[in-house]
Design brief:
By secondary structure, the chain is an alpha/beta fold. It is built from eight helices and eight strands; from the N terminus they run βαβαααβαβαβββαβα. α2 packs across α3 (about 45-55), α4 (about 60-70) packs parallel to α5 (about 90-100) and α6 (about 115-125) packs across α7. The N and C termini lie close together (about 10 Å). About 30% of the residues are buried. The protein binds adenosine monophosphate.
Length: about 220
């Protein structure tokens, strides 16, 4: 299957994408993770992406599309993909459609996770990420056992530059506009499925799985 997880920052896309990809045997591709990884390795792609990321802005389409198309052409992506954070613009969606059409495996479903924005603000500013393994914690809902250390690998937890309060409102504003455009785009192709993103993480996973099973049965 070729699936897209869509939603504003903080709706839980990253967490759900990891769980679902492993449950369904799909390759999880997060363009945000790819950019952060490149920035950490100080590649030229990473350094230029970093400039946009630290301001809460989108990395230009050309760079993002090339990076994503290259990734989905690799062998491990042929088993099916779970996209997280891509597409974010209509040109990205169109480039993806075209590439998947060429390999005869179109998008099966776009899972649109929805959470009220007041809750998103609280969620985003409390999010901490392990600098070693990428595990995500939250000061209110999922605190680490030891302060500022990862439960899994003892790595130091840090707050992503784009989760800091000043940047969060900018990110939400920018993201709201393009998310609505993508919702309309995929609605027109009858690919869009809205999922309530409030409640326990496991409940949301179950809601997503039941939609995916329904889509799979209709294929
Ligand atoms: P995320 O982890 O998905 O919230 O992404 C973090 C940052 O990476 C975003 O705020 C953008 O600056 C950049 N980014 C990730 N995915 C994309 C994309 N599809 N298009 C443009 N920029 C992106």
């Amino acid at each position: 299957m070729q699936l897209i997880l869509l939603g504003l920052p903080g709706v839980g896309k990253g967490t759900q994408a990891k769980v679902l990809a492993s449950h369904l045997g799909l390759l999880h591709i997060s363009t945000g993770d790819m950019f952060r990884d490149a920035a950490e390795k100080k590649t030229s792609l990473g350094l230029s992406a970093q400039e946009f990321m630290s301001k809460g802005q989108l990395v230009p389409d050309e760079v993002t599309i090339n990076m994503l198309l290259e990734r989905i052409s690799e062998n491990d992506a042929q088993k099916g993909i779970m996209l997280d954070g891509f597409p974010r613009t209509i040109p990205q969606a169109k480039a993806l459609d075209e590439a998947l059409k060429n390999r005869n495996s179109p998008i099966d479903a776009v899972l649109y996770i929805k959470v009220p924005e007041v809750e998103l603000l609280a969620r985003l500013t409390g999010r901490w990420t392990c600098s070693e393994c990428g595990e995500i914690y939250h000061t209110q809902t999922n605190p680490p056992k030891k302060e500022e250390l990862c439960d899994l690998c003892d790595g130091v937890l840090s707050q992503r530059a784009d989760d800091q309060p000043d940047t969060v409102s900018d990110r939400l504003n920018a993201n709201r506009e393009w998310t609505e455009q993508l919702v309309t785009y995929y609605e027109d192709f009858s690919k869009l499925h809205s999922i309530d993103g409030t409640g326990e993480m496991e409940e949301i996973t179950e809601r997503l799985i039941s939609v995916i099973e329904m889509v799979s049965a209709e294929r």
